Amino acid sequence: MIQLNSLAIPPSNPSKVVIGMSGGVDSSVAAWMLKEQGYEVIGLFMKNWEDDDTDEYCSARQDWLDVVSVADLIGIDVEAVNFAAEYRERVFADFLREYAAGRTPNPDVLCNAEIKFKAFLDHAMSLGADAIATGHYARVRHQGGRVQLLKAVDANKDQSYFLHRLTQAQLENVLFPLGEISKTEVRKIAEHIGLHNARKKDSTGICFIGERPFREFLNRYLPRIPGPIKTPEGKTVGEHMGLAFFTLGQRKGIGLGGSQDGNGDAWYVARKDVPSNTLYVAQGHEHPWLLASQLFAMDASWVAGEPPKSGQYSAKTRYRQVDAPCTMSFGGQEPLSFELTFPQAQWAVTPGQSAVLYDGEVCLGGGIISA
Predict the structure, then answer these.
(1) Residue 8: what pLDDT?
(2) What is the pLDDT of residue 27?
(3) Which residues are the active-site residues?
(4) What φ, ψ does residue 150 adopt, rounded to 5°?
(5) What are the residue ranges of helices labelled H in the chain?
(6) According to the model, what pLDDT value does residue 6 have?
(7) Taking a C-beta distance cutoff of 8 angstroms, is the pair 131, 173 a contact?
(8) Please, what are the domains in the chain?
């Protein structure tokens, strides 16, 4: 018999919870867990992208069918809502601006803050919800009149990195049923209760791009502006198709066949100089241009509603990165900008990505890497 960890104290009078359901196994099991806990559960399927409804890479129709099937099995009501206009305005427009400026944004972070925990939250409350829930691997803890965002128990699936811009108001009435269990246990539960999507492949990458080739997608919206590819020494070794199509640390798809100096090391994107439209590449994974002991971040957002004190913490500069010890201090626009210094240099710190700060298991918030 599968033993479930306690999600919350089951309400004596069932509270209404609206849960975002994607058609995947995570949100499906999360919905079932809530129902088992005694909540009145309503599933909400969010359609956030509609430009490619007839495209071979769009799975929205199948995902909706999966949601309906799961809802029928576990006995909950479900509805679909279209947030495509909000998504295009609040997330996709920013995504294109950042790429056009030579940075590499993380739209999933913005999607959580602007769509899943804003547009979705507002809609759920209009349905009379007492709380919302998602299938994210994270936890919340109510302490001292505030809400803390915590890492998930399953370190391999922890998604607090993507949730770090959520505010106290957004987290106050949120449930993360999967925060206390592992992905392995989630799939076991799905099989135990007979969910047809128990072995459904996890979605990867950016939601509106799906499995389609990334450059092919970007080329629909951003112009190709060719420019030189140079080495750190200034030697021109090729031509790129546009800075927007490359990101720091990228190894494949640069278009440089073999070694220029015979050492055989792979080429990596090391820098992008937007004013001169130059792409700089370096050979070797540990080239100095790919390592940074310091970063600056802007547009900071702090979960507690106020910045933490300067001091010793740990940070992630990309998802799935092992927490790196660091010293955090503030720049001239406290609390909107901060600086992180690492005793061990970090690899391919990328402008546009998020630097997320942690105090042990507590996610404090973070900002957008600027340099």
Answers:
(1) 47
(2) 94
(3) 111, 207
(4) -115, 155
(5) 25-36, 60-74, 84-87, 93-100, 107-111, 120-126, 168-171, 183-192, 214-218
(6) 39
(7) yes
(8) 16-192 (3.40.50.620), 225-285 (2.30.30.280), 291-369 (2.40.30.10)
Is the pLDDT at 59 greater than 80? The verdict is no
In the Cβ-directed half-sphere of 104, how many Cα atoms lie within 13 Å? 22
User: CB-based burial of residue 216 (10 Å sphere; 0-12 exposed, 13-18 middle, 19+ buried)?
Assistant: exposed
Short-list 234, 241, 230, 244, CA closest to 278: 230
3-state secondary structure 158-202: CCHHHHCCCCHHHHCCEECHHHHCCHHHHHHHHHHCCCCCCCCCC
Residue-wise pLDDT tens digits, 229-266? 999 999 999 999 999 999 999 999 898 865 555 567 89
* Cross-strand pairs, 143: 146
- Residue 67 reports pLDDT greater than 70: yes
Query: In what side-by-side order are the strands of the sheet with 267-273?
Result: 236-240, 227-230, 278-283, 267-273
Angle, in degrees to the nearest 10, between helices 183-192 and 25-36: 70
